[in-house]
Amino acid sequence: MRKFHGRLPRVSIWAAALVLVAVCASAGIASGLKSGGAEVAASADRPPLDPVLEGAGWIDMATGSPDVADQPERQGLRFPAGTSYESALNQIYVSAFERGTVPDGAELVEPLPVGVVTEESAAGALTISLVAPWGYDERTGAIRPPSFNLPGTLSPQEATDRVREATAAGVALPEGARVDVPELADCQAMADGVAPPPCAALEGKVTR
Amino acid sequence: MTALAFNAARGRIRTGLLMLLLALVAGGTFFAARAMATVVGTCWVNASGGYIHCISKAGTEWQQVKALHATGVPYYQALYRASDGAIWGPWYWNDMAYHTIPLGTSTTITLMVDNLGTGNPSAYHVAMG
């Protein structure tokens, strides 16, 4: 009987400890769920964003892909003549997520018309809207977050390892990766200063 | 209380605290490891069947997909959060490369695939880390 009495408190302490761990874990998970944030390339190592990028719909996506029609005006980024859309997206992505700012070789210019993602001037200079550099779904207006691709010849293990290593190192693009380049609908691309008719998602919301 | 009883009680408290500390460390390590772990799978999706929920993960920094069969392209990929109905994407892929979305969130989200190809079904590599 004496032995039994000696063990009882120890068992109780173990049980209490386990309950406490469960409560702490649940509280931790619940607080994580409550915060509910979602950001592109979010990591503790990422530098703070320059004001020109802060709150951009293609970075801050707390409640899913935002509607392009609901976004405030943002400046465009003009790249030197001869810069391809892929090269421009690559520079924007790496610069935003490794330095928190826009690429050095590009110039901030006036905003493009609502719903226009790219403009190619007669001289060949490419301007990209900072509202949605990767464009948006022309049916719903949902802004497309950036993404990148790795060669399909890699094994699944190699592909996931490369992404894990880059994420851990705070590098925007893993070894051998390239940014994805969307095929923009005609309604998102502008040439020689003439805005195209708005996409279906913007009909009735913008006038041209 | 006798000195003997006092010492016994003190010993039990010390043991209990040690056990509590160990349990907390073990619990914390378990949940941290779970949050950092990569979830990998193969998702089978019928053509023209709409979006299929492939894998879900709580606390994720990136999401990856690849069509494993030529009959599985083109396809749509999207991310979905059941708790509030939030949707990210969709992305339209027409190749067999690995595509990765670097979306970071502490919440539970699901990777979905919509097979626009001809395979019934086609397989997709899916991963979330």
Structure report:
The complex is a heterodimer of chains A (208) and B (129). Chain A has 3 helices and 8 strands. Chain A starts with a helix and ends in a 17-residue tail after the last strand. In chain A, the strands form 2 sheets. In chain A, strands 3-2-5-4-8 form a 5-stranded mixed beta sheet, with no helix packed on it. A two-stranded antiparallel ribbon of chain A has the order 6-7. Chain A is globular. Chain A is of the alpha+beta class and 208 residues long. Helix content of chain A is 30%, strand content 12%. Chain B has 129 residues and is an alpha+beta fold. Helices cover 26% and strands 47% of the residues of chain B. In chain B, the strands form 2 sheets. Chain B has a 4-stranded antiparallel beta sheet, with no helix packed on it. In chain B, strands 2-7-4-5 form a 4-stranded antiparallel beta sheet, with no helix packed on it. In chain B, strand 4 and strand 5 form a beta hairpin. The model of chain B has no long low-confidence stretch (mean pLDDT 86). The chains are: A alpha+beta (208), B alpha+beta (129). At the A-B interface, helix 1, strand 1, strand 6 and helix 3 of A face helix 1, strand 5, strand 6 and strand 7 of B.
In short:
Chain A is of the alpha+beta class and about 210 residues long. Chain A has helices at about 1-35, 85-100, 155-170; strands at about 40, 75-80, 105-110, 120, 125-130, 150, 180, 190.
Which characteristics define this entry?
heterodimer, A: 208 residues, alpha+beta, 5-stranded mixed beta sheet, two-stranded antiparallel ribbon, 30% helix, B: 129 residues, 4-stranded antiparallel beta sheet, 1 helix, 8 strands, rod-shaped
